[in-house]
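User: Hey, my collaborator sent me this sequence without any context and asked if I could get a structure. I don't really work with proteins. Can you help?
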Amino acid sequence: MRPYLTLALAIAAEVTGTAALKASDGFAHLLPSAVVVVGYVGSFYLLGLTLEDLPVGLVYATWAGAGIVGTALLGVVVFEERIDVAAVVGMALVVAGVLVLNVLSEAYAPAH
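Assistant: No problem. I've predicted the 3D structure and written it out in structure-token form, which is a compact way to encode the shape of the chain:
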């Protein structure tokens, strides 16, 4: 279970860093700019830990997909950005792809 916890933390760090990137206003504000650096460094460190136990394709697809959806939803909630039906469908497809890869794909199934 540890690799999935570190992957979840890596996703959270990346989404936090990306939200701070928006808040930094082009790195014009020091605190959000520092959060960007800490968020991305932390995310990549945690990805490295995750890759000790899980395949790179699975990790990267999950990290990227969850980061896309998490960041888009954070934009709606925190920055009052708008999304339309096409965006919701697109995000649902990303989530479906990550689920298929993690749950149904035999490509990344543990060896028995």
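In plain terms: Residues 2-104 form one domain. You can pass these tokens on to your collaborator as they are.
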